[in-house]
Q: What sequence folds into this?
């Protein structure tokens, strides 16, 4: 059982491009296994069965960047400051998210997408661990594609979140060019306001609506950096959801 967990931790670190024997890979593997063990103990105390090893490892890796203990441990072992440690763990999250896509763990991908929209480095359109426009676009398209497998109710909630965020955009900007030509600080302020909407929705239990907002944030983060063709492809995927959600907003 331990070998299977360790194997999945190795797959995650390999996806990050880390050598298996590097200090970075070793500390991540140890933390993923530690997190799995903690989760398993909680489930057992609640009388629930253990998670499959693949799911347990991916969930642990995705959640790592939000774990203050993990951030502190990475900083201590690698002798880097906490901001760099958190950034490193976001790379871990994104690598695990890619593996979760391949394994069809929709909920894990959704969690990673919502977290990613709040990353500080995303505010200048740099998604940690995704180094090319093609990779960022693939992650966005796959995230949007998850909606097609949702129930009618869940899809409507995602569409509502997309429309709610675009309603806020249209209230502040006349065009995408207006947004694109803002200063970085001004773009950050607007993206922060969308993030606040997402948080409020999720506090109310509307996680699918929050996911819809996160899709808009992911798109807007890419706008200043992507070429026109890439932006148009992404916009074409969001527009149907926006139309569906708008119909809900005006009821």
A:
């Amino acid at each position: 059982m331990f070998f299977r967990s360790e194997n999945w931790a190795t797959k995650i670190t390999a996806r990050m491009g880390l050598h298996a024997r590097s200090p970075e890979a070793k500390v991540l593997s140890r933390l993923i296994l530690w997190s799995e063990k903690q989760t398993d103990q909680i489930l057992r105390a609640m009388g629930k069965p253990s998670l499959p090893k693949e799911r347990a490892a991916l969930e642990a890796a995705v959640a790592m960047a939000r774990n203050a203990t993990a951030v502190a441990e990475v900083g201590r072992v690698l002798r880097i400051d906490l901001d760099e440690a958190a950034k490193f763990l976001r790379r871990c999250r994104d690598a695990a998210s890619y593996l979760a896509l391949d394994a069809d763990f929709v909920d894990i991908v959704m969690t990673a997408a919502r977290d990613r929209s709040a990353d500080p480095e995303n505010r200048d359109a740099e998604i940690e661990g995704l180094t090319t426009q093609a990779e960022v676009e693939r992650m966005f398209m796959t995230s949007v594609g998850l909606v097609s497998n949702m129930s009618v109710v869940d899809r409507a909630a995602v569409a509502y979140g997309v429309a709610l965020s675009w309603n806020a955009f249209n209230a502040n900007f006349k065009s995408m060019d207006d947004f694109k030509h803002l200063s970085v600080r001004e773009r950050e302020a607007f993206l922060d306001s969308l993030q606040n909407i997402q948080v409020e929705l999720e506090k109310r239990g509307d996680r699918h609506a929050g996911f819809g907002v996160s899709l808009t944030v992911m798109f807007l983060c890419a706008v200043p950096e992507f070429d026109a063709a890439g932006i148009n492809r992404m916009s074409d995927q969001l527009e149907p959801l926006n139309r569906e959600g708008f119909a809900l907003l005006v009821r």
About this structure: Residues 23-45 form the longest helix (23 residues). Residues 1-5, 123-131 have pLDDT under 50 and may be disordered.
